[in-house]
Amino acid sequence: MTDDLAPQKRALRAELRERRRNLTRDERAAATTGITEQLVALVRKIDARSVSCYLSAQDEPNTREFANWARDAGIRVLFPITRTDGLLDWTTATDDEEETLGLFGTPEAVGELLGPIAINDVDLIVVPAAAVDGSGMRLGWGRGYYDKTLGSMERCPPVYAVLFDSELVDEVPRERHDQAVDGVVTPTRTVEFSTRSPRRRRI
């Protein structure tokens, strides 16, 4: 990270974390309903039979209802498992999901580890984000797992970040290793970006 962008990213992440903490219970419940509906519609639109999705933490937009719906609908769901080498392992969602805390204190599923290349078989990747701008550039939380994963894929399926509505912003600080997304899902809408990497499969 350059000296110029490091403070910008830290400040923006801190502001966004504080906003999330200040959401009311009713606001969170409404957001969960909206995000689930948007993700279900997206899966149906692209006819995804396998997806990767993270287990949301307490202050994150809730992806758990969507993951449960997908599993119950017979869609294969992969959850990420953090590794010390900066890569992600994956495990398959089950009916009796067990959870633990990962390397950074965030929830992760417990299951058979499938290795980093398991992500190559999904039809849709759902990722967390702090913010995304109008060009599709994603600001993550600073650990680089998804940037490394997406940057290494030769044929990446559509990638959508899940955000609260206020986190789709005009611009985020960008570095060379940062990876853009194909769209965002918020409680009220799904936004697709017109500029996509040529290595990605289009919807």
Description:
The chain is of the alpha/beta class and 203 residues long. It has a single domain, classed as NagB/RpiA/CoA transferase-like (Rossmann fold). It is built from four helices and twelve strands, in the order H-H-E-H-E-E-E-E-E-E-E-H-E-E-E-E. The chain has helices spanning 5-21, 25-46, 64-72, 145-151; strands spanning 50-52, 76-82, 88-92, 98-101, 107-110, 124-128, 131-133, 138-139, 159-162, 168-169, 183-185, 190-192. It has a seven-stranded mixed sheet. A hairpin with a 5-residue loop joins strand 2 and strand 3. Helix 2 packs parallel to helix 3. It is globular, with a radius of gyration of 16 Å. The termini are far apart. Residues 197-203 have low confidence and may be disordered.
Outline the fold blueprint.
Blueprint lengths: L4 H17 L3 H22 L3 E3 L11 H9 L3 E7 L5 E5 L5 E4 L5 E4 L13 E5 L2 E3 L4 E2 L5 H7 L7 E4 L5 E2 L13 E3 L4 E3 L11
Parallel strand pairs: 1-2, 1-6, 6-9, 7-10, 9-11
Antiparallel strand pairs: 2-3, 4-5, 7-8, 11-12
